[in-house]
């Protein structure tokens, strides 16, 4: 996954670790005669409607819908996809114009023109789903369709990052004849214009993608069909890969399985390891009588042992994180370590007693059972152990499947809950802006006027993102002082595949979303 916001980062760097030696290669022919490439993941979509999703549904959207801009392999900035060209037409970065490719259609044959683009963007804001992508468009004033092929975006303030917003799957273009602007689309079919058509969809089970012959864009499809299978636990995911029921896994492999595959227990397996800006963190509900107390939040932040979580639960396949902005991005600091240092029961007790809290604090912690892999349950058991070992907390744990989990936190049902975040684009803005303000990715208002009214607008005037360190340093300090969000770890990205599958190294875009069209079978081995 999610609410989101803006701008720049290096493309995910991936290094392939081959577990097989002595192979001769290969050409990237069409592999339709061997059937679709089968991809397994624990990251199932929550919806098929782009206007309703700011989460990991985007992984599917990227492949079945189209956006004006997208990321070709190796790109660090968005490039035209449905658009032929896009640019700011003024010096203040407030008017952005795109010319569409000629002859665009949706997979159902309906015309995709400037009116459809305007309708799609306006629809997001009109429906305004809680936890949906409307929050990405806070700098947009209006959309204008000029003739059939020109779309002009008028912004209400300078925003050099707006092209990155248009490149997110949240801005997918939909067919006005198929998608009402009064409600979220129901059902298990779509009308898109991406590289693939969704031939069959079984929620929580599988998505069958076949080549969209009407697609016009930059993607050079290297296969004719992909089937994505959705798993509720990592064990079953890894077992099906070993049993050759899958060609590749994306998201959800447990740490033990990653290590096992890397140690070459499967002779015909490749593991691709990549850098990732994905993070996991705790969210505190300010309306809860206990989680709403600053002293309680600070005590939890003081007690969390991130190194133990990374090593004991995730076997060092993740890194401890002490800021909401991950390492490797402009402006990253260690604000939470600076505030709290190493875990300390004595310091945590002082936070509570100074606030007049002398009893054990009862807290309910919630996590999703089927989104981030089976290690999530172990992680929350470890957090429970750490907090209760201090003698300061009594913790109860609760888990729910993702679809109902999202509904719960958007309704404010959870005192404390875990979330993962996959960036919309690799910029510090995208790790601060989505979580603050009246409308955010968490469904829980977080007023932070110093950030939303001053620091973010200042940073968005700056096209050179190396010059925003000061603003995001201050923002991270505010987040640490509030302790409404407590970062836990930053992930690494692992793809495990059969040795006859290639393209994994090129398949991840800058937000670690898989571009299925890059995968193909080796035709000689």
UniProtKB/TrEMBL annotation:
Ranges for domain Solute-binding protein family: 78-441
Keyword Translocase (UniProt): no
Keywords: Lipoprotein, Signal, Transport
UniProt GO MF annotations: peptide transmembrane transporter activity
Top-level taxon of the source organism: Bacteria
GO annotation (BP), single: peptide transport
Subcellular compartments: Cell envelope
Gene Ontology CC annotation, any one: cell envelope
Secretion signal span: 1-23
PANTHER family in alphabetical order: PERIPLASMIC BINDING COMPONENT OF ABC TRANSPORTER (PTHR30290), PERIPLASMIC OLIGOPEPTIDE-BINDING PROTEIN-RELATED (PTHR30290:SF10)
Family from the record: Belongs to the bacterial solute-binding protein 5 family.
Protein name from the UniProt record: Solute-binding transport lipoprotein
């Amino acid at each position: 996954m999610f609410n989101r916001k803006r701008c720049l980062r290096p493309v995910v760097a991936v290094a392939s670790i081959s577990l097989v030696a002595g192979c001769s290669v290969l050409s990237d022919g069409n592999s339709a005669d061997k059937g679709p490439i089968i991809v397994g993941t624990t990251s199932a979509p929550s919806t098929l409607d782009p206007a309703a999703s700011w989460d990991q549904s985007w992984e599917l959207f990227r492949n079945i819908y189209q956006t004006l801009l997208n990321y070709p392999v190796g790109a660090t900035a968005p490039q035209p996809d449905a658009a032929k060209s896009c640019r700011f037409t003024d010096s203040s970065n407030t008017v952005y114009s795109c010319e569409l490719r000629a002859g665009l259609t949706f997979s159902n044959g309906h015309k995709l023109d400037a009116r459809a683009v305007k309708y799609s963007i306006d629809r997001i804001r009109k429906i305004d789903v809680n936890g949906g992508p409307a929050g990405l468009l806070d700098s947009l004033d209006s959309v204008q369709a000029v003739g059939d092929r020109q779309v002009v975006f008028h912004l209400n303030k300078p925003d050099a990052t707006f092209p990155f917003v248009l490149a997110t799957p949240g801005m997918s273009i939909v067919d006005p004849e198929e998608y009402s602007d009064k409600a979220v689309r129901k059902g298990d079919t779509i009308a898109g214009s991406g590289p693939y058509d969704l031939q069959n969809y079984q929620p929580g089970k599988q998505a069958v993608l076949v080549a969209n012959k009407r697609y016009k864009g930059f993607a050079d499809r290297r296969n004719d069909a992909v089937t994505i299978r959705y798993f509720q636990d990592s064990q079953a995911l890894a077992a099906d890969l070993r049993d050759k029921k899958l060609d590749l896994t994306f998201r959800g492999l447990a740490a033990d399985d990653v290590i096992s595959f890397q140690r070459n227990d499967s002779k015909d397996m490749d593991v691709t390891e990549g850098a990732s800006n994905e993070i996991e963190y705790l969210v505190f509900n300010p309306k809860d009588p206990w989680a709403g107390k600053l002293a309680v939040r600070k005590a939890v932040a003081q007690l969390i042992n991130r190194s133990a979580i990374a090593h004991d639960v995730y076997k060092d396949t993740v890194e401890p994180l002490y800021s909401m902005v991950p390492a490797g991005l402009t402006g990253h600091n260690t604000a939470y370590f600076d505030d709290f240092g190493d875990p300390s029961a004595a310091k945590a007790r002082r936070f509570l007693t100074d606030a007049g809290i002398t009893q054990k604090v009862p807290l309910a912690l919630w996590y999703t059972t089927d989104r981030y892999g089976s290690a999530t349950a172990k992680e929350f058991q470890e957090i429970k152990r750490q907090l209760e070992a201090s003698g300061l907390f009594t913790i109860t744990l609760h888990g729910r499947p993702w679809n109902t989990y999202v509904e719960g936190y958007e309704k404010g049902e959870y005192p404390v809950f875990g979330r993962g975040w996959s960036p919309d684009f690799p910029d510090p803005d995208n790790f601060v802006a989505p979580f603050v303000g009246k409308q955010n990715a968490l469904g829980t208002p977080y007023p932070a006027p110093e950030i939303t009214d001053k620091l973010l607008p200042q940073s968005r005037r700056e096209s050179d993102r190396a010059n925003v360190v000061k603003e995001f340093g201050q923002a991270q300090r505010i987040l640490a002082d509030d302790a409404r969000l407590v970062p836990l770890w930053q992930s690494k990205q692992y793809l495990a595949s059969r040795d006859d599958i290639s393209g994994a190294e090129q398949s991840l875009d800058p937000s670690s979303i898989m571009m299925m069209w890059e995968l193909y079978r080796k035709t000689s081995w």
